[in-house]
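BUG: 3D viewer hangs when loading the predicted structure for this chain

Environment: internal workstation, default settings.
Expected: structure renders.
Actual: progress bar stalls at 90%.

Input used:
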Amino acid sequence: MFQQLTIVGYLGNDPVMRYTPSGTAVTSFSVATSNSYTNNAGQKVDETTWFRVSVWGAQAESCSQYLSKGRPVLVVGRLKPDPQSGNPRTFQRKDGSMGASFEVNAQNVRFLPSGGGTVSYEADMGDEAGGAEDDEIPF
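Structure tokens produced before the viewer hung:
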């Protein structure tokens, strides 16, 4: 079985690096993604989803050194489910409402340019994009 998750968003906090007892670096940070749409009532809805990301090894050290709150990143990894339920980790907020935390073990983190420039994901994929026309489905 295989799963892969790709997230493009902004860091919600500065990365925090620590070391395991065996000396392996691990860096943690949160990433916010957003989605805007118009609902059936014609109202604009802004939706934000948060992910807690863990990066390991040499890549963890780079993330700790070069990333900071507000920087855009592309994260490729896998979801880490809650060991007890197999779902996202749930918790109760201070106001009594329920929340969920989507935890990701990163396999690759790309630092994206900041300053409002757009980044083409297909350009980063190289030949994998397949060169399909905009109106063609590549499968």
